[in-house]
Prior knowledge:
The protein has 63 helices and no strands. It is mostly helical. Helix 45 packs across helix 46 (1023-1039). The chain starts with 14 loop residues before the first helix and ends with a helix.
Amino acid sequence: MVVCSTIFDLKKKNYSEMATFIDALLPSVHDTLTLREALSKLAQCERSIKSNGVCSIIENFNIIYSCLCNVTDLKTETLDEIMKTLIKGLQLIESDLKKILSDKIPSETRIKYLNSLKILIYLTVEFSNFFEKKFLTSKENDLLTQTNNKKTTKKTTGSKKTHVDLSINESSSHFDWNDIKENVLACLANIVDLNIQKLWDPPIAEEQFVITITNLCYKLMETCQSNSIRPQQRKTIKDHLCHILAIMIKKYNHSYSACVMIVQTLPHYEHFSSIYADLIQTCVTRLGYESILPDILRELTHTNMSSGTGNKENPNIKFYSQFLIDLADRLAENFLPYLSMVQEFQDEESYLMRNSVLYIYGEILVKVLNKENVTDLKTKQARDELLDNLMEHIHDVNAVARSKTLQIWRRLSDENSIPLHYINELMKRCVGRMEDIASSVRKSAFQLLCDLIRTNPFGIKSVELSLQQIQSELVKEEEVLNNLNKESDKLIDELNSIVEPKNSEEMNEEESDEENSQSNQENEVELQAAKDKHQQLVVIQKSKVNYLKDMLSFVNQIETAIPKLSKLLFSKTQTDVLEVISFFVTCYEHGFTDMLFGIRKMLALIVNSEKTIKDAVINAYKRLYLKSESRHNPLQIAKHLLKLTEDLSICERGALEELIGEFVINGELEGSVIQIFWELFSDLEKPVQTRFHSILLLSMIIKKIPGKGRANIDVLIDYGLSSPKENQITDQEILIFSETCLALSNVTPDVSSKQLTQQDPTSVIKETSRKNKKNKDNDDADTSYVQPRLQFKNEPFKLVNTHQLFERLTEILTKEITSSKLTKWSCFMENAITCIIKLADNPILIIENIALKIIDKISPLKSLMTKSPPLFNEPTQDQTQLNDEIKTDSLLLSRYYSMIGVISSKLLVFLVQFVVCELKRRKMCKESQDNSKNSKNGSKNRRKSIRPNKSLNRQSLGGDANLEEDMGLQGAEAEDAELMFVESVIDQKVAVSQAKAGVFSLLATQLLGIIYILKEHAKFPDENLQLSCALALVRIMALSQKICNENLQLLFTLMEKSPNPKVRSQLIIGIGDLVYRFPNALEPWTSHLYLPLRDTKSNAVRMNTIRVLSHLILKEMIKTRGQIFEIALCTIDDDIQISSLSKLFFQELSQRNNGLVIYNAMPDIISQLSGGGGSASSSTNDEIYAARVITEESFRQIVTYLFTFIKRDKQCETLIEKLCHGFRQANITERKCRDLVFCLSKIQLSENGIKKLKETFKWYADKLIYPAVYDTFKQTILKNARKLPILKTETKALIDELEKQIDEIKQKGLTDDMKGNDESLNEDKESESDSENQPASGQVGKKQNNNNKKSTVRNQSVLKQSQKVNVNKKASCRSNTTRTRRKVVDSSSGEDDSSDNDGSMSDSE
């Protein structure tokens, strides 16, 4: 774009150019002076202007003009002097013009002042252009200098910004162009404000005069927002520029030129949009020139906004859209008459222009057409039209436009500018946008929904009433409305009955009785008044009904959004999760109690790995429960937290425990609130449910503050384990017992040997002092019992075996095991066993005592423990009696064996963790004491072998005290000496059944009864008993490797053939634990773990199996070879959860070793599944594990999903070669050929991959006779090859040649088919003649042989043709003939093929 300018090259300026601008000055222009003469007369010029007036500038023009011609050679002082002279001249002429323009001006005076004004304007503009140009140059140099200085010097000052001095003066700093510019613009603004058109005849200013001034203003606008200008001065300069241009637009006919200039120069500088908007505002508001707005809009509509390079958008559009937005901010009221012009931009392809138009609509609705200003019908229609446009653009094709529209609706909601009848439709569309594909749109939708809830237009009533209550109230109000309508109809009928007879009487009788006439008039007036009153009541009632309908729709939309929001609560997009959390909190704060469901769902996010999400959840709960209006009311906080614990699931309980722990650690849960929990728990008169929730929260608090529990052990025992008055324990009370046991267990924190060995004793003191200092001002925060770090000098907290706690637990366990009404006994039993093991000084004795007491109560147990192996042979009379007793006491037996399983697992944890940690702790104490003694004696520290302290009662465990001394372990092996010792004790004791072996022998002797019950399922069909025995078996096996090896076959048989799906489901989990415990023992049985994936009777079995296998494979406990295709089959399972878990497994597997794991498994998966394979079952139980037929569609779904993880070129090339090699299998079926070629079509081709297809053509050439194989190669594989982004000429020729070969083979196959058909007809005729002397069976056999011969001949001919086509390519392939033969991808290759895959991958990598 070329901008018209009056900045001339002064050295080349000639006489004719000057004459066009300045009249009557030709002689003086001819008399130009040298620079020395001009400088000598400059002072004379100044004195002349001051003494003789401003018109003397005409005689002295050649002096200043000569300086202008040599301006580059002038010094700064001279320039400063000239500018002061010019400014003084402008001020003088301004004052003179004010006087002379008020009256009629003589012709000579007019011409004199006009020439003087032209000269001053011309000289001022030219010098200003020079200064501005030099200003920009000096600014660039200064910025370049600053950049270089930053690289070489260090910053010595703080963050305080300094003003950039861009003064033009080289010697002094008193000359500031910004100050001079401000004065020049002020003088120009004052002059153009005057009616100077009178100086021209006719009174119209010259175009050149207007252009000279306006071009200077446009030039100065480029730098008016420069950082070198002071902020206040920046605003002043901008105001002067806008004022001058506005005057020129209105008074000097500059409107059209200004519109063109604005549109053309908008894209040049980003700040132009705001400055030009200020200019338009000045014209409209200060000068009242409103026609500039439609002119500028019209000019914008004529601008081509769709032209861009290529498919890119026009880069200038963003400047135009921003300009419209700035105009809307300043002149929203003035846009209303010109909406038709604005709507033209709404049809633009660019979303930026649509956004600017929508923004204009929003500003008009907020500032002009809001609720208060809308009175007449026409204005309402205009408002509704704009709202409808905004509503439609919620579904705009562009995500940015959708998001911007929702933000505009937010603005309308904040300004209360949305009519009531638009709320429900807006809510509906907003809820729909929550499922938008763009996260920015979803975020805006969340925020808009929260704003609508905050500014709830239906008041508190919509919050207090439920959906059903609103519906019932709506029905009542509709009935009232119907009754009012009926009454109104009656009144209308009565009124009509009076009016019609009156009219008929007037027609028949001219004179009527005055009394009758008066009574009729009174009745008519009364009926009319009643009618009007009823009509008012109807209108009011209609508004009530409509209000309730809108309220019902509003609440219904919120409830509809809850399920969608619950799904997004676990979205992978972080903004979605944060906005959903904010939504639930907002709704709950504003009284929507139904959001408690969402608040509860948020608990699961407390364990999220993203710190931002976790902090957001914690802050949300703080905001709801700790920092609400009731924050100073501890009782209210306690009630809210108690309500949160209602109906907790297992996952929600763990999350709530983490949340309470965060509150406790940070000291945000006040001590007064915790005291309320203790009071509620210890008050036996309170409801059982309240006490249960109180002890639940106390248990979570004690876990973080163990000192709280230790100080209140007696309170926990007296009130948590007390017998009820009725002496009959209920399920709710047994839950209180269970939670009390859990709270008591938390008194002793879980120990770990790693934490123990890594502990720095001094860190505990530092951390405690730091926390105390942090919370010294918080009196309510209880930090006295904060759990310290583990120190090896601290002995674990233990209670003697004769403590009342253990006596009470023994009494409850042995007494209530026989209570059939208690359904929560197992939960209490598990927590009670945990409590005993963690707190008792010698828990083994207490557990043995409890078990023996229960055995005395259950008579069949003694028989099961003492019977010999003949028990499993032919049944005797005693055995029959025993079976009857077991059937009778199945509940007691299931509870007992469940307890045995719990004892086994808890005892294992106790020995492996606590005992090992205690041995190490005592060893560290002894070493510390020895080191302190050696340091006092001055001896050197010596490294000693690690030996567990003998103070631990190893004889109670049955071990040899000198065992470790004999081992002589040192170094790294010594670290696990204690663990090895404990393992040896377990193996020695659990695997024997001696009478005095204690609880270990007790567990071992239970195996006889457990195995007997599991084997005789038909005699003991109780599902709970079978499940308890199965779990007990797995847990006892986890104790000893010897017992594990002896019972593995039984365990896997039960897992495969048990008719109870619960047993099969739980055993697969137990076997997964055994794999971790004894991986070497379970390794031969790995293949059996995949069989439950084919369980057709229970989804839970398949679900647990896929979870266990995924965990074991990802943790590298088992290898992926062999049967991973079973997991691949689960990706198309009918159960959505199973298919999702399977796909998630492959996603995680693809991230291991750069995808090599899936790559190595792909040949095996394809081999097993192609051709309908993978349906064979290794189990004889066909009722559970039915054979599965893999359809072609299922195979394609699986392969399509798995090939998304194969992306590396090397992997794709190797797979192409393996798949092509698969066509060489003997007796390959057409179905398998179709499957293999489909796999080829799903591989990402590269140039090397195309070469592989060409090199291996002879392997699949004879399979092209199948139409599906040919079509896939022709229509899919070759087409994909041609679509590669960059193809070399050689590769294109290779593709053409391969396509030609494929076509030739196909054509040859069709020709052979036709010949084969003719031969078959002749052979059939011969066979018919020969078959007359042959039996029927012989005919069939001969016909089959003939068909086989024909097909063999056809295949041989096709193979010969393929060899003939490739004869010219043999020379190029000889270098590859030494390639080692790949093994065929076949189901029979199994593990050998997998090992070959590994080797091939290592070579390719």
